[in-house]
Amino acid sequence: MKHGTKSNVSSSSSACLRAGAEMAALLAQQRLLKEKHALEEQEEQIRKRKEQLQLEAEITASVAKVNVFRNSESSVMIASSRKLDGVESYFEKRLNIHAESFAPYKDGKDGG
């Protein structure tokens, strides 16, 4: 009878050891899974931040383009204005448009 009891204790000890090993393995898996989830959260935050930075870069580039267009339009407007000033000046001299009665300017070249 002592022999059978020893066998039961042996199988109980063996089962207890297996259960303990299984529990230790599950606890290790749990710890690793928590670490994995923490890393995944960090990766998600990094992904979102990258998206934000990409959008900010696109907005900055767009603002720069708008500023370039505005500056070039201002330059064109100033240049056009200067050209118009020159044209107006030419017509003022040639046509004497500010005279009380309109009479073309006579410089002697057209026989008048």
Shape: rod-shaped
What proportion of the residues form beta strands (DSSP E)?
A: under 5%
| Alpha plus pi helix count | 1
* Strand element count: 0
Give the topology string: H per helix, E per strand: H
Helix content: over 70%
**Sequence stretches where pLDDT stays below 50 over 5 or more residues:** none
Q: Mean pLDDT score, rounded?
A: 79
**Largest sheet properties:** none
Secondary-structure-based class equals: mainly alpha
Gyration radius over CA: 46 Å
Terminus-to-terminus distance? 150 Å
What does this structure look like?
The protein has one helix at 2-95. With 112 residues, the chain is mostly helical. The longest helix is centred in the middle third of the chain and has 94 residues, at 2-95.
Blueprint of the fold:
Elements: H1 2-95
Quick recap:
This protein has one helix spanning 2-95. With 112 residues, it is an all-alpha fold. It is rod-shaped.
Note the main attributes of this structure.
mainly alpha, 112 residues
